[in-house]
Specification:
6 helices, about 190 residues, about 35% helix, alpha/beta, six-stranded parallel beta sheet
């Protein structure tokens, strides 16, 4: 078994914990989709433990659950030891800037994650700068919003890029270079 799709099942916390005890020791499962399963914040600890010990899981889809900041903070603790996870989908999990900040700090310890999706969460609508995105490597594809043609999404991308460009040169760990950002800046009318 390489792919397991349990999306749209009412796993909640207990079901998630039972499932993840198996995932923790599984050496073949590459993709796990447990989206839309009513997974609460307290299940974040079980997810974190599974990610710390699992050596095969490359894609974890958790969108449309209820992990919130508390669950995401637990999950981010696994980033220091997990080297196999390449894709993490946390869309629509009620994550605020506090959770995004923890994710960003964890990304500094993990160089394996190639795509992180955090769209449709409250942090994108908060007034606080999404400054922590600058901590994430330029090789990580970060999805902050869906529907590139939507006008409000363009405004969101513009504001994030403006924050990122403002961070260039102030932070030695920021990997976003002006040369890489320039085409995006022109497209969104920032530069």
């Amino acid at each position: 078994l390489v792919f397991l799709d349990l999306s749209y099942n009412l796993l909640e916390s207990a079901g998630t914990q039972v499932l993840l005890r198996s995932v923790k020791i599984n050496t073949r499962l590459y993709e796990l989709d447990i989206s839309n399963c009513q997974i609460p914040p307290k299940a974040g600890t079980a997810i974190m433990k599974a990610l710390k010990e699992n050596t095969a899981l490359g894609k974890l889809i958790l969108h449309s659950n209820k992990l919130k900041d508390k669950g995401v903070i637990q999950i981010s603790k696994a980033f220091a030891s997990n080297k196999t996870l390449k894709y993490l989908d946390l869309d629509s999990n009620e994550i605020t800037s506090k959770g995004v900040k923890e994710l960003g700090q964890a990304m500094r310890r993990n160089r394996g994650l190639e795509k992180l999706s955090i769209a449709n969460n409250p942090w994108v609508y908060e007034t606080e700068e999404p400054f922590i995105l600058k901590k994430m490597r330029d090789t990580t594809q970060i999805t902050i919003s869906e529907g590139d043609e939507d006008r409000s999404d363009h405004e969101l991308v513009r504001s994030v890029l403006a924050c990122l460009v403002g961070a260039v040169g102030r932070d030695d760990d920021a990997s976003l270079s002006t040369a890489k950002a320039e085409p995006l800046l022109h497209y969104y009318g920032i530069a």
